[in-house]
Amino acid sequence: MRTFVAKSPQTIKALNILQAAANLPVNIAIIGERGTGKETLVNEVFPHIPRYSVASLPQKIEAKEIFIRDFENIENLHIFMRSIQGVRLIVAVTKFDEELDEFFPIQVTIPPLRERTEDFEELKRIYIQKVKEEFELEEFPQDFIPDLQSNVISLKKSIYEKALLSSMDEEEIMQLLEQYLENRVDEGYKELLYLFEVPLLRAAKKKCKSVLAMSKALELNRATLTSKLKRYASKI
Q: Helix 38-45 to helix 9-21 angle, to the nearest 10 degrees?
């Protein structure tokens, strides 16, 4: 079970509030984007609490308190809260809703990882050390660009992807792509070209600050590049 990392002032505060409220007979809502560590925080303070998604909630709840990880999926909050009286709720939601105020007197907010520098640096250190051990790497690539779009989820994924690619040579990468394409050859060259172009455009977009810089790096004229960016807009 992953330990909740609390190095930034925001997460130290969130952890302290939850620990202080742990034995109070009140409902608690934890608010934060996907991947900010809401359930990990609950695991830290309530290690033995029964955990459910909205879809997996039983008809009859025997426990005195439960954790619901996707509480925003409750269709009618007032009806649900009346039906579950006597059970203490610890819930996670991705964004604040005014209806929460009526039923959850304690609300803890976990900001995005991009706003928690100390947590980001510590989590990056932990995952890089882990992949170095798993992939037997002496050094982790210095040109690593972290992906924080989905917070801890995408950070971890981007670190593992970088470690995997750094442990493979071009021939091994091409062999993987070849194996994937074996069952799709009949779709035709034009239909499969995006598998090469989209990753290349994504990489150029990450590295370059403008379309002009992308154009120079890829050695494409701006009209051609703009056309490709529009064509693959939903994938880039």
A: 40
Cβ neighbours of 113 (radius 10 Å): 28
Integer-rounded Cα Rg, in Å, for the chain is: 23
Contacts of 152 by beta carbon, 8 Å cutoff, 6+ apart: 35, 36, 37, 113, 123
Q: pTM for the whole thing?
A: 0.77
C-alpha–C-alpha distance, residues 114 and 122, integer Å: 13
Q: How much is the average pLDDT of 3-17?
A: 96
Residue 140: is it exposed, middle or buried by C-beta count within 10 angstroms (0-12/13-18/19+)? middle
Measured in whole angstroms, the distance separating CA 21 from the mean position of its chain's CA atoms is: 27
What pLDDT does residue 209 have? 86
pLDDT over 60 at 1, yes or no? no
Instruction: Return the closest-CA partner of residue 18 out of 35, 1, 6.
Output: 6
Q: Give pLDDT tens digits for 168-193.
A: 889 988 998 999 999 999 999 999 99
Q: How do 88-93 and 28-31 pair as beta strands? A: parallel
User: pLDDT band for position 201 (50/70/90)?
Assistant: very high
Nearest alpha-carbon partner for 52 in 36, 69, 65 = 69
Q: Could you tell me if 198 and 209 are in contact, meaning their C-beta atoms sit under 8 angstroms apart?
A: no
